[in-house]
Amino acid sequence: MNRTRIGVATCAVCLLIIVGSAAAQTDPPGIPHWAAIVHQLSLRTHDKGSGGGAPGVFPRVIPRKFRADDPTGMVETYNLNAPTHTARNAFFQSLGTNGRACATCHEPRSAWGVSAQSIQQRFEQSHGTDPIFRLVDGATCDTDNVSTLADKRTAYSLLLSKGLIRIFLPLPATQLKSTPPMPRDYEIVGVKDPYGCTDLTSNPAIASVYRRPLVAANLRFLTECPGGESTCTPLSIMWDGREASLQSQAVDATLGHAQAVNAPSDGQVGQMVDFETLIYDGQIYDDAAGYLDKKGARGGPDYLSDQSFFIGINDSLSAGFDNAVFSLYDAWQNLAGSHGESAARGSIARGEALFNSKQFTISDVGGLNGRPGDPLGNTPAQGFCTTCHDSPNVGNHSKVLPLNIGVADTNPPNLDASGLPVFTVQCTGGPLMGQTFEVTDLGRALISGKCTDVGKFKGPILHGLAARAPYFHNGTAATLEDVVNFYNQRFSIGLTDQEKNDLVAFLSAL
Asked: Is residue 369 part of a domain?
């Protein structure tokens, strides 16, 4: 099989299954709920014809705003492309040979990513025939047996349990952009792969790892150049930063995930990129706190679309860094009342303040202060959550800064790494020569060829979290409580139970 470079999943939603809730009945006039759109627009399988749509069920037109239920409330999309005719937009079209389109793995009810909950629903509804269930990467290996429904449950076990797709990458022969060219300075000397899909005997050797699809919304916060610059290098588009642009990602995903025979045309690539760069997504309603844009708060995608940003803004490693990164819920800091919505809103505001200002010791973070040559050397430093999440009201790092915080370790605290392969990596050169690491994913090192990059990944944009569990690149945190508990133990922050609850409330409201 030709194993090409694969980008984060793109694909087609076969079934839009939205679980109704009482909250859905409270949508303001003029802002439809996704379930209502599905009903009102008389959804049908798109005809095959000029620009034929992806096989599956879609609304004919995606409006300016729409909402979908999630486990803690509602997520809203603000579509600056509106009206988007899905039958004529390449983001929703099957351009390959396996029925997938971008929307297969970037669905609106999961904040334009996927959630394990939605994957499980799609499996039960389709009996494993939804286009996301394809051997190429949806299964733990492309040689898996999918003869029966039980076989499919086994083959797609990581997709069903953690929302993971298989990424298969050749080991780089040389270090990325080294002058003069330098050979890769590590070797994989051992693999415990329960699926047998890593092949170190092929030429080139292939490593199979398993990662969550990143969201296809809010992407302006990866690409907007500083003032006066018409072009610039974007922030990391993929977990490992291997794509040079959204355009190259669209091409590679179509050829890889959708198994297309030919690359999409420039026009089709333009449609994909235009759509995903002009949609904003975020939580708009919380079951406990109510609407997140009331009483002076600025939750939801409307405010997000107006957020000032450029690559490098408020960089925590530069002069002028302001650790008060989030200000969405400042207006809720001193609300009257200690019950009901007021209490829930106060919790969100306290969580935001903690995220901004809770100080703790950051140590042994590869890419920051855990390796020779890191920006802070290998000296522990006092910092905040916003030291690594510094983009104002967005939460990714505003410059390229892949980090190893230990999520790819074989036994990270309070996380579930079960079912993931384990790679034993030995540094054969460079500043870590002679050291050995065990990880479930080599991360950036699979692209750069550098042992110092083992276990490093980008920090993602934080909006829409409530709609797209589980978390981290490998789905090892089932809930936001798990995320908070991981950080609390990893960095010995010493959070109280109340502080943990407040941080979860805030993250759920993004």
From this structure: yes
Instruction: Answer with the one of 285, 320, 339 that is the final residue of a domain.
Output: 285
Inter-residue contact 13 to 24 (CB < 8 Å): no
Quick one: DSSP state of residue 481? Answer: H
Helix, strand, or coil here: 498?
A: helix
Regarding whether 464 and 373 lie in a shared domain, the answer is: yes
pLDDT digits (tens, 9 = 90+) for 127-180: 999 999 999 999 999 999 999 999 999 999 999 999 999 999 999 999 998 999
Give the closest residue to 34 by CA, choosing from 16, 21, 22, 46. 16
Neighbour count for residue 8 (Cβ, 10 Å): 26
Please give the structure tokens belonging to residue 156: 């797609």
**Structure tokens belonging to residue 100:** 């997938």
pLDDT of res. 51:
34
Cα gap 172→351, rounded to integer Å: 42
Q: Is 424 helix (H, G, I), strand (E, B) or coil?
A: strand
Global pTM reads: 0.91
* pLDDT(468) > 50: yes
Q: Tokens for 446, please give them.
A: 């699979």
- Tokens read off for 113: 């990513």
> Is the per-residue pLDDT at 25 higher than 80?
no
What phi and psi, each to the nearest 5 degrees, are found at residue 132? -70, -25
DSSP calls for 317-367 = TSTT--S----TTGGGTT-S-SSHHHHHHHHHHHHHHHHHH--EEE-S-BT
Higher pLDDT, 421 or 24: 421
Tell me which residue of 143, 208, 136, 138 sits closest to 170, measured CA to CA.
Answer: 208
Nearest 5°: phi and psi at 61?
Answer: -130, 130
* DSSP conformation letters of 263-277: PPPHHHHHHHHHHHH
> Which H or E element spans position 500?
helix 497-508
Please, what sign has the CA dihedral across residues 138, 143, 148, 154?
negative
3-state secondary structure of 62: strand
- Residue 26: predicted pLDDT: 59
Tens digit of each residue's pLDDT (9 = 90 or more) over 340-368: 999 999 999 999 999 999 999 999 999 99
Please tell me the distance from the alpha carbon of residue 412 to that of residue 422, in angstroms, as a whole number: 13
Write the burial class of residue 87 (CB in 10 Å: 0-12 exposed, 13-18 middle, 19+ buried): middle
Are residues 279 and 356 both part of a single domain?
no
Q: How many angstroms separate the CA atoms of 106 and 116, rounded?
A: 13
Q: Are residues 368 and 260 in the same domain?
A: no
Beta bridge partners of 291: 285
Tell which of 255, 285, 315 closes a domain. Answer: 285
User: What distances in angstroms separate CA 166 from CA 16, 131, 236, 253, one per listed residue?
Assistant: 23, 15, 19, 13
The backbone region for 225, taken as left when phi is positive above 0, alpha when psi lies in -120 to 50, beta otherwise, is beta
Domain count along the chain: 2
HSE toward the beta carbon, residue 106, CA cutoff 13 A: 27
| Residue 398 and residue 325 share a domain | yes
> Quick one: 230 exposed, middle or buried, by C-beta within 10 A (0-12, 13-18, 19+)?
exposed
